[in-house]
Amino acid sequence: MTHPPRHGVRTDLFPARAVPPRRRGRRERGRPPHADVLTPAEWRVVEAVRHGLTNPQIARRQGVSIDAVKYHVANVLQKLGFASRAELRRWQGVRRDSNLARKESSSVEPQASLGPVGQIARHVTDIAAARRWYGEVLGLPHLYSFGGLAFFDCGGLRLFLSEGEGPAESILYFRVGDIQAMHATLTARGVEFISAPHLIHRHGDGTEEWMAFFKDNEGRPLALMTQVPPATA
C-alpha cells in the first residue's frame, strides 16, 4: 500500500488453459497447470509492479531473490505480449481467485462521483519509532501493521505510514464503491492513470484492499481505494 515512485475497468479475464486428461498409471511431472493466465507467484510480482515497486523492493518484501523477481517479470511480459514494465502497470487484468473477480461490476455512470477521502499517506524514516509516536504519544488507535507499513485511525480517516524515501507531500486516497467503474469513468474524462486497479493486501478475514493511482492536473499522484469483502454464501 505504498504509493507510486517519485517521479484502466476490468477487462474480460483470460480463458482457462485446457488441461489434458491424465493418462492412467502415469504420474504427471512438474507443477499442476493454473486456471489463470498467471501463476500465483507471477500475480504477486505483477501486483507489486503495478503498485510502483522496484525489483529490489519486491524482492525484500516477498523474501525472494532479485533474480527471481526479474524471471517472473520477464515471463509475465512474454505471456501478455507486453514490451515494457510501463505497459504492465496499466494492464487491467484481475486474478481469478480474487473477490473482485467474483464481484459483478456496476455499469459506468457518467455522473459517478468520488467518495470521501479514506486515507492519507506519509513517509517515515523509522516505522517502529513512528508507530510508538503516533500510537503512544498522539494516542491514535493502531489498526494493523505489516512489514514497513502501519495504519492508524483518525476518526474514520486512515493514516498510512510507510518506511522509506518518497514524495514529501501526502497522497489523498478517495474511497469508491466500484473501483473498476470509477477507473473507466475518470479515464473517459481524460484522467491519466499511473496504474490500473490492483490488489494491495488481503486481510485475515478475506477482505481485499484494491487501489489505483492517477495524476492531478499538475502531475501529482492521487489514488482510488476500495475494500472488497469475500462473497457471502
From TrEMBL:
InterPro entries: Glyas_Bleomycin-R_OHBP_Dase (IPR029068), Glyas_Fos-R_dOase_dom (IPR004360), Sig_transdc_resp-reg_C-effctor (IPR016032), Tscrpt_reg_LuxR_C (IPR000792), VOC_core (IPR037523), WH-like_DNA-bd_sf (IPR036388). Residues 31-96 form the HTH luxR-type domain. Keywords: DNA-binding, Transcription, Transcription regulation. Residues 1-36 are annotated as: Disordered. The keyword Transcription applies. SUPFAM superfamilies: C-terminal effector domain of the bipartite response regulators, Glyoxalase/Bleomycin resistance protein/Dihydroxybiphenyl dioxygenase. Coiled coil: none annotated. The keyword Transcription applies. Residues 20-29 have a biased composition (Basic residues). It holds the Pfam family Glyoxalase. Residues 116-227 form the VOC domain. One of its GO terms (molecular function) is DNA binding. It comes from the Bacteria. GO terms for biological process: regulation of DNA-templated transcription. PANTHER family: DNA-BINDING TRANSCRIPTIONAL ACTIVATOR DEVR_DOSR (PTHR44688:SF16). This is Regulatory LuxR family protein. It comes from Nitrospirillum amazonense.
